[in-house]
Batch of 2 targets.
Target 1
Amino acid sequence: MAATTIRLSYYLCCLLLIVQVHSVNRDNFKTCDQSGFCKRHRSMQPGNSPYIVLMDSLKISSSQISVQLLNTKTNVRLVLDLYGLQGNTARVKINELEPLKPRYEIPVGDVLIGEPKQQDLKVLDKGAGSITLGLEDNKIVVSYSPFRIDFIAGEEPVVSINAQGLLKFEHFRKKPEAQPEEQAPANPIEGEEKKEEEGEKKEEEKKPDNEEEPGLWEETYKSFHDPKPNGPASVGIDVSFPGFENVYGIPEHAESMALKTTKDTDPYRLFNLDVFEYELYNPMALYGSVPVMWAHNEKSTVGIYWNNAAETWIDIRSTTADKNFFSKIADLVKGNTEMAQMDTHWFSESGVVDIFVMLGPRPKDVFKQYAALTGSTELPPLFAIAYHQCRWNYNDQDDVKNVDANMDSFDIPYDVIWLDIEHTNGKRYFTWDAHKFPSSKDMINGVAVKGRKMVTIVDPHLKRDDNYNVYTDAKNRDMMVKGGGGEEYEGWCWPGSSSWPDFINPEVRNWWASKFQYSEYGGSTPDLYIWNDMNEPSVFNGPEITFHKDVQHYGGTENRDVHNLYGFYVQKATAEGILMRSNNEQRPFVLTRAFFAGSQRFGAVWTGDNMGEWSHLKVSNPMLLTLNLAGITFSGADVGGFFRNPDHELQTRWYQAGSFQPFFRAHAHIDTKRREPFLLPEENMKIVREAIRKRYTYLPFWYTLFYHGFRSGETVMSPLWVTYPEDKSTFEMDDEYLLGSSLLVKPITEQGSVGTSVYFPGKDESYAGSQNTYVNAPLDKIPVFQRGGSIVPRKMRVRRSSSLMASDPFTLIICLDKQGEASGDFFKNNILQSSNADPSGKGSTKEWVEKLIIVGYPKLPQVSISQLMAIHSLYITAMIVTAEC
Amino acid sequence: MYCIYFLLIVGVKVSAEIGRPRGVSISMASKYEPNDQKIFRCLDGSGTIPYEHLNDDYCDCADGSDEPGTSACTNGKFHCTNAGYTPKNVQSSRVNDGVCDCCDGSDEYEGKIECVNNCKELGKKMREEQDEKRRLQEEGFKKREGFIAEANNMMEGKKLKIQELEKEKTELQDKLKELEAKKAEAEGPEKEAKDKHEQAWKEQKEVRDKERSAIKAREAFDELDLNKDGFVDVLEIIPHMEFDIDSNGVVSEEEAKEHLEDNEKVDFDEFSSRIWGNIQSIYKKLVPDDQKEVPPPPVEPQGETGVPAPTEEPQEDAVDEDKMPEYDEETKALIAAADEARKNHEEADKRSRDIDGEITTLTSYLNTDYGKDKEYAILRDNCYEYTDREYTYKLCPFATASQRPKAGGHETNLGRWGRWENDYKVQVYDHGQNCWNGPDRSVKVHLTCGPEHQLTNAYEPSRCEYAFDFITPCACNQPPQPQDKDPHDEL
C-alpha cells in the first residue's frame, strides 16, 4: 500500500484525465543537476588522476597493504587499504589520512555480517611504477602515478579502479567564517561561491584549485534548505570492467535487467524514496538501494559492492578498453580486435570509498562471494512462499472472515491474509481499531485453524499523540530522530504529525523489537507476522518526500550519511522482534518496501506501488531479476498492480506470472474495485485458481530453491546466463528466466497474446536447444518448462494452505536428458521453526513419494501408461514436446 | 537410469463401515459393492481396477471415484454421514488435513486432530433454527400474501383512478375549449377599451414631457452658459466632472467636445434638440467648491461659514401627474368580466395539468417491477433507516438510497432506483453522487425474509459501492411442505 499526499493535489488537477496521464511527478525528485555533489562529480572529465601513491608510506602485512595517496593538486593525503579476502575477493578502502572527525562507516555486523575473513596477498613484483600482488589465481596491480588499481583474473584484466582518474574525495574542512554581510545572503546559492573562495584561502593546504563549485556548504531544493553543517564530504571513483559489454544490479530502478548507458540520461540513482506512480525504464531512484553491480561475459563474472549508505549515483558508459595499458600489465590476447569495456562512475554524498571486488569467475561464485559479505536470504517459513491475499484494506473482522470463507468455498488455497493501515486505531501501529477489529485474536485464530497466518502493517512513523504509548515511550526515552536543530523531528505521514524512532541506534532497535512481545502488542498471536511500509522513510512534507538531509541520528551522524540504511534497520529490528517474541524459535517473516544490501537476511521485499497496467506486469520480471542478482531473492511485485483496476485478462496473466515469482502476493489500492480471485468471472477465476494451485504443487521445489539460496547465496529467480554463462544471446534476456536451473519460465505479459516465442538455452541439453520456439499460450496456459535431466519435487494434493500439506506425499517429475538420466534433490525441515536441518541429513517425516512421473523415456513403461496419459497440464505437455530423450 | 513407475502403498485403509467403503454415501453404496471378478469400474467408466485398490490412497480413476475416503484424488468427494445433522460431501483435499470439516469427525481418521462429534448439538440447533426460520417464513409468507393482495387492490385502485382521471380529462377538454372561447370573447372589448384609454393618456403625457424637458434644457443651458453669450461652449463644459468619460479626474477638451457632439459651442436650439437628450441623465448642477461636501466635523458645531449641504432636490410634484388616470367605469366593468373569464380558464387548465401529472405518477407506479407477484409494492413510498457508528443510511424502496453523517451534515445520494438483480433477491440503486476519484455511488440491497420491513445493515465492500441488508416479509417464500421436513436421510 501506501503512497503520499502528493496524490491529493495530483488527482485533483487531473480528475478529468484520470485514465490518460498518471505518472510520477518528477518535480518532487532531484535531478543530478539539482544535487550539488552529483553535479560536481559528474562534471569531472576522464584523464590523469591527480592522485599518486606515496610508496614510502607502504606497509605490507600478510593480507593487507596500506599506503598513502597524495592529491598533487591540493596536497591532501588519503590512505588506501587493500585487503585480500577469502573467496576470490578483495577490498579497496580509501579514507582521509587525518580527517577532522571520523567519517561515517557502516558498523560491521549490520550490513557486512562480520569482519570479512582475510586471505593472504603475495607480493609478486614491486617495481618503480607499480606493485603487483597475488590473490589466489588473480593479480592485483597498483600503479603509483597516476594512481590506479587493476585486477587480473588469470590473464584477463577484469576490473580497473580509477583508470579514468575520477577519484574525488571531498575531505572534511572547516567552514569558512561567514562575512558579516553574508550572514543572511539574499540568495544562498549565489553566496556560495564567494564563501567557498574564502574557505579555500583559509585551508591549511596551499592549494587554491578549481573547487569553486556550488552547493558545498548549503543547498536549496524547492522550498527545502539543507544547511550542510559538515560541508562537502562526497566521495567518488570510477570502476571499469574491461572485456565486458553488460553490467547488472544496483536496484531499485524500474529498468531492464541489463543496465543502460547513462550518457543521455541522469546517472542511476540510489536513494531510498517513496515515489508515487513511478515511471518505467528510467534511472530515477525508488524505494530501496543495493549498491552491488555485476559484469558478465562469456568468460567470467565479476562485480563490486560499494559499501556506502549515503545517496549514491552511478554513471555507466560503454567504451573500449585501453589495450595499450593492459598489454603492459597482462599477457593480453594478441590481435587487433577492440576489447569492449564498461566504465562506471560511482559517487556518494558522504562516507568513505569502500569497494569489495568479487572476482567470480562464474555467476554462482560471485553470488557466494557477495553472500559471504552481506549474508544470504534466510530460508523463509513455508507459508511465506505460498500465496498471500492482501488489500488496502480488509475493512473489519467480518470482511476477513468472509474473504477467508469465500477462498474456501471457491477452493482457492491461500496462506496469509493481510491488514493494511486502516486496521489500526487512527494509524497508531501496534493498535487495533476497536470497532472494526474488536477481537483480533479470535480473528487470527479463525484463519489459523486452517493453517493460515495474518500480517499487519507496522510503519516506522509514530503519531505524535501523548496518549499513544508507543510514541510517548520512545519520546520519554529520547529515541526519536532529531531535526537539524536538535529538536524531535516532526513530519507528516499517514497519522498526520509524526515522529520517527532512530533505528540507526541499536538500543532503539532493541526497544522496537520488544514491542512485538505478545504482552506489548495486544491482540497479536504467534500466527501474526509483520509488514514494514513507508520506511524509506516516507515523509509527506519532507524534501523529496523523505527526511531532511541534516536530520540527526545516533552517534552524531546525519541522515545524509545513513539514509539508505533506515529502512534496512526498520526491517532488521522488526525481524528481531519476531524472533524474540518466540524465544528465537520462530523464523520471522517481515515484508519491507525500503531495503539495502543485506536486507535479504530479514525477509521479503516488494517492488512498491506499481500500477495495474500491462507495462508494469512486464517490468516486474526485470525488476525481480535485478533484485535477485543483488541478493534480494525473496521478492515480488503486487499481483494485479496496486493502483487502478486491471481488466480480467491482465489480472489473470498477472496471477500466472506471480505464481512463478518468489514472493506471491495480490494487493490493491483502497480506491480500486474489490478483486479477490473469487470475484472474477468464472472462466478467469478457474484459471487463476489453477495458477495458485500450481504454486502450491511446486512449494517443495520452491522451498528447496530457497534452501539452496540460503546456503550458497544463489539467485532463486535467475537470468538464463547464470546457468548458461557462455550463451551470449541470454545476456540481455529479461522476459524469460529460470527457477533454480530446472524450470524455464516465460510469463505472458502482452495483452491479447495467445502464444510466445520461447528461447530454449543449452545446445546439448534436452530443451529445444539454443533456439526460439513458438509456444501456444492461450489464457489458461503458463509457458513453463522443465529442463531435461532434472527432477522437480511437487505435492499434487493441494490443500487450503501450505501447512495442511505438511505430511502429504511427493510426486517427483523426472525429465530425462539425452543420456536418459536425471537428478534432483529436495530439502525438508520444520517449516516454521528456526532450527535448520539436521546436518547429518537424517530425519523422519510422514511424507512419502506417491508418484514418479518420468518424461522422455523412449518407451513408455508398462505400468505407468494410464498415469502418463492422465497428465494434462501444458507444463507437462510442452515438456514432452520439447524434451529430447 | 531405469525408469520405473511405482507407487508406495501406505497400508490399505480399512473401511470403517461395513458394506461400503469410507467416504461413500448410502445412495452410492450399491456402486461400490464387490462383484465376482473383484473388479471396480471407475464411475465414469474410464477404467477398471482391482477391488483392493479402492481407497488405497493412490488415485487411479480420472474422476476420483476410486478414492472416496482419502485425499489422493484432487477431484474426489468425501461423504460425511454426520448422523444427527445433515450429511455433507467435502472435497477430498479436506480429508486428513488436520481441520475438522465434518461434524462427526469422519474426515479426520488419521488422528492429526481430535475432532469432537458435535453433530447432535448442531442437529438440535439446526432444527431449532429451521423451526424458527420456518415459523418466520410462514408468518412472513402470510404477510406477503396480504401484501400481494393489498398491492393488487392498490394497483386496481390506481388503474381505476387513472381511468377516472382520463375521463375527467376528456370532459375537461370540452370545458376548456368553451372557457377559452369565453375568455377570448371577454378579452376583445377589454383590450379595445384599455388601449383607447392608454393611448389618450400617452398622448397627453408626451406633450407634457416635451414641455418639461424643454424647461429643464433651458435651465441647464442657462446654468452651463456661464458667460451668458447664448452659447454653451467647451470651456463651460470642462468644470463639470460628470463629463469625465475616462474617469481620470479631468474633463479634457476632447471629452467636452464629445459631449457637444463635436461642436466648439452650441446655441440653445441645438442644445435642446441634439445635446440635452444625451446628457440629461448624467448632468449635475455645478456646486461651488466651497459648498462641496465638507462633511461637518462630528463634534464641532457648524460655524457661520458652514453652508448647509444642499438638500436633495425635492422630487418633482409631478409624481401624481405622471400616473395614468383610472379607467372609466365602463372599461373597469369590461376588465372585471375578462378577469373572471381568465380565472375560470386558468383553473380548468391547471386541473388539466394536474391530471396529467397524476396520470404520469400513477403510470410510473404501475409500470414499476415490484417482483414476481408485486409483493414488494408495499414498500414503495416508505423509507427505512439504519444507523451505524458514523452514518445513518436511508432506503426509500423504488426511489432512493442515501447516507448522512450521524454528527450532522448534509445527505449524500447513494443512488436512485435502478433495477432488480439475481432473481428479485437484489435491488440496485445507482447513479448516486460521484465519488472523488472513483465511480458514481451505488447500492446493492440484499433482500431476505424477515418478520418486519427493516434495514439491518449497511456497508461499503468496495470504495463507493455500498451494500444494504434488508429484511422483509415480502421476501418470504412459501415454506417447504411438512413432508420434506426431516432433513436426515441417513441415520
Target 2
Amino acid sequence: MPRVRFVQRDGSEKSIEVGRDLSVMLAAVRNGIHGIDGECGGSLDCATCHVYVDEEQASSLPQPDEEELELLSAVSGERRPNSRLSCQLKVLPPLDELVVHVPARQS
Amino acid sequence: MTGLVIIGASYAGVQAALTARDAGYSQPITIVCDEEWLPYQRPPLSKDFLLGRISEQNLILRDETFFEGKQIDLVLGHRATLLDLRARQVTLAGDKALEFEKLLIATGSRARRIAVEGADFDGIFYLRSVNDAIDLKARLADAAEIVIVGGGFIGLEVAASAAKLGKKVTVVEASSRLLERAVSPVLSAFLLDTHVRAGVDVMLNETITSFKGSDRKVSAVVLGNGASVRADLVLVGIGGVANDEIARSAGLRCTNGIVVDEHGQSETSDIFAAGDCANHFNRFCESWVRLESVQNAQDQAKAAGFAIAGTRAPYESVPRFWSDQYDVKLQIVGLAGQYDRQAVRGAVDDGRFSVFYYRQGRLVAVDTVNRPGEQMAARRLIAAGISPAPEQAADPSFDLKSLVTAGDKAGA
C-alpha cells in the first residue's frame, strides 16, 4: 500500500497508507492531519490544502495545471517552487511514499 | 455528568469535535447522527456524484481510524429526539439517553418542501443527503424529461449535470432571474446564457401550481400560466429550513435557526450550535445570517470547538461559496446584500470575469467566474478590510494583489 508522510513544522511526522486513487488531501483530512484543511473537498475552490512536496520528489510528479497554478499564486502560507495543492496529488507509481511538508498556515 | 455530546456528524459536528479535542478538551466526546453513513462530502452530490465521477466510498470525509485516533465516539443511525437542558440529557430514538456537560447542536438544514397538489407523487426528488443523491442518480439514468423547480445553487447544479447526461431539462424559477438571492443581474444573465447554450429551457417569473401524474407517478408539472411541461423526474430546490426543532422544544431561542454568539454559544451556557442550523451576527454582512455552506459550518464549528475546550477564538470569517456548472467555476466571497455600486473586471463574454460589490464605498463582496486567483486575492482584501477603488477593480491591468501585499506589510 502506498503511503504519504506528513511532516509538521515542528518536525513531527505521521505516515499513513493511502489508496492510489485517493488524493493526498483526502487522506490527510480522513486521518485528521493538523494544518491541512481541504475545505472545498478538492474542487479547486479554496487553496487550503497547500503543502510543500519533498524537493527531490517534486519533479517526478505530474506538474500542476493552470487552475492549480492560479490558486497557488494566492496561497496563504509562503509559496515555494515545490508548493502544491494536495487535493491534486496522488501517490502514483513508482513512488511508494510521498513526503509532504505542512505550511505555516492555510488561511 | 461529563463530556461533550454533539448532535449531527456532518461538517460542523465533526469539525467541532476535532477542534475541541486538538485544543485540549480531554473529556469524552460523543457524536450522534441519524444517518448510517460515515461523515461524507456534500458538495459533489449534485455534480461529480450524479455524473458518476466519484464513488460513494470516495465521498467519505472521515473514517473509523480518524475517530479512534481522536478518541471520539461516533454513534450512527440514531436520531436525537428530545433535549432536556435541566437534566443535561439527550434522548435518542429507541429511548437510549446520553448525559452531557456540554452540547453542540449541528443538525443542519433540510430541503424546503413544495406544497402543491401532487407533491407526494413518485418521481419528485429533493437533494440534501447521500441517500437522496443515490436515489436521484438511479432514477436519472432512466429519466428523459427533467423539470427543475428553483433556479438556485442546487437546482442549477443538477440542471447542469442532467444536461451533461443528455437529458431534456427545464428549469422553472419564480423570480425574474437565476440565483437571485446570491448574485447580481450581470451574473444571473451570464448563467442564464450558459444554461440556454447547453440546451436547458429556463422559465423565469414562473411558478408550479400542481403536479400531474398517473398511478401516483409524476408525468408533468402545471405552471401558473396554465401550461404543462412533461416530466418523468422533478427535482425541487427551493431553499432550506433549519433543523432547529429539538432546540426550540428545549426552550433555546431560535429565529430562523438557533441564535448563537461569535463562539457558537447559545443563550444557555455550555449549549452550542454551528452550521446550517445556527443563526449568528456576521460583522462582514452587518446582519444576522443563517448560512448554508461548508465554510460557515467548519469555521463556526472551529470557534465552538475552541470555546468548548476553554480557548477563545471567535468566528469572524468572510462568508465564502462556490458552484460548478458545466465549465463555469463560480466563486463568491462576502454577501453583496444591498450593494450600491458594482464594478465588472474582465469580459463577461469570455466567461472569465469578476464582479466587485460596494456598499458606501466599501468592498463587501466579489463574485468571480473562472478566475480562482482573483477570488483568492478578493478574499484576502475583504478579510483585511481593504477596498480597491471601483475604477481600480474594473481595470484588468491593476494588480489587486499589490494591495494585499501592502496590507500585509502595513499589518506586520
